[in-house]
Specification:
By secondary structure, the chain is of the alpha/beta class. It has 2 domains: 197 residues, 3-Layer(aba) Sandwich (Rossmann fold); 99 residues. The chain is built from 14 helices and 9 strands. The structure holds adenosine-5'-diphosphate (ADP) and magnesium ion (MG).
Length: 305
């Protein structure tokens, strides 16, 4: 696993924050936790100094953190990195319209002989000092999120009629993610947003994207890598200016395309599949195709990487 503390030192993160992380880890050692199998070994690091420092400060001061921003800005990568950095077992919960209190806290079930309580992810994270990642938290219905209010504010309890009342462990943090693009999205209600410190996730910088590509595709020629970085920055600019929607502004798509090219797919086809086809509007497609063709020869192939 990437040693995140070393990485953060190299990234020149404020040493006081790094010391804070060390102290947290000493205070709440991961060893001996029944849920050591939930410790995360991140596959990729999050790049972005300013965001790292804000996120660490929020967690050290006991805040719940909401990562809000356009898609593919590394919200989940950062959330996982934070769980790993603080060495806490992680419970990752995908929110959706059908999510209800039982899915979060747990429910009584019949085990064949008797009724037993089967705890849900939020209950377990709260009890075991875990970090709960509430993924796309804005997608759930307000009513089902109400059970989280007391857990997320100063009361730090889960107290639902019919359940045991449990205190939220002092090591527990809640990290929400929420897609929020230039054109907005489904909102998060005020009761919930007031219980989070909200970090607005910037799109990756050109410099950090260069580092990400170098780490992900170590064999790629520098010249080609720069072309992909420029391509992405240009799509980003067009999306910010409202010339195109954010559908093609998809770092995941760019990484997928490069992976396909290294597997033998021609660049033109790979970029069509992974970026152009993300939008279903004919006019927008042609705009995106133009931007791509101006940067990446469509017959660029595996050998050119
Ligand atoms: N700042 C960043 N640092 C590292 N990786 C990033 C960053 N921004 C985006 N990515 C990459 O983009 C992809 C999508 O990241 P993810 O965390 O799933 O996005 P989100 O949850 O914001 O939609 C991943 O491959 C991730 O590595
Ligand atoms: Mg995500």
């Amino acid at each position: 696993m990437t040693d995140l503390l070393t990485f953060l030192k190299e990234e020149q993160i404020d040493p006081a924050l790094i010391d804070g992380v060390r102290e947290f880890r000493e205070k709440y050692p991961a060893e001996g936790s029944r849920y050591a199998n939930r410790l995360i070994a991140p596959e990729a690091v999050y790049y972005g100094n300013a965001v790292w420092e804000k996120a660490i400060a929020a967690i050290l001061t006991g805040r719940n953190l909401l990562l809000a921003g356009p898609k593919a800005t590394g919200k989940n990568v950062l959330a996982d990195n934070l769980c790993a950095l603080f060495a806490r077992p992680a419970w990752n919960v995908s929110f959706h319209i059908g999510m209800d209190a039982y899915g979060l806290i747990g429910m009584d079930t019949y085990d064949g002989e008797k009724v037993v309580f089967r705890p849900g992810p939020v209950y377990l994270a709260a009890k075991e000092g875990g970090f709960a990642v509430l993924d796309e938290v804005n997608m759930a219905k307000n009513e089902s999120l109400a059970v989280l209010h007391a857990a997320l504010d100063h009361r730090r309890v889960i107290d639902v009629p019919g359940y045991d009342r449990i205190d939220v462990s002092p090591a527990t943090r809640f990290i929400g993610t929420m897609n929020y693009g230039y054109a907005g999205t489904r909102d998060l209600n005020e009761a919930l947003s007031s219980r989070f410190v909200i970090l607005s996730m910037p799109p990756i910088s050109g410099e950090d994207l260069t580092r990400l590509l170098a780490a992900r595709f170590p064999g790629m020629k520098e010249r080609v890598r720069d072309q992909f970085v420029r391509l992405f920055l240009e799509i980003m600019k067009k999306a910010e200016e409202g010339e195109i929607t954010e559908r093609a502004l998809d770092l995941r798509g760019l990484l997928d395309a490069i992976a396909l090219i290294s597997c033998g797919t021609r660049a033109g086809d790979a970029l069509t599949m992974c970026l152009v086809n993300k939008t279903f509007d004919g006019y927008e497609r042609s705009l995106i195709r133009d931007v791509i063709e101006a940067r990446i020869p469509s017959d660029l192939s595996k050998a050119d990487l």
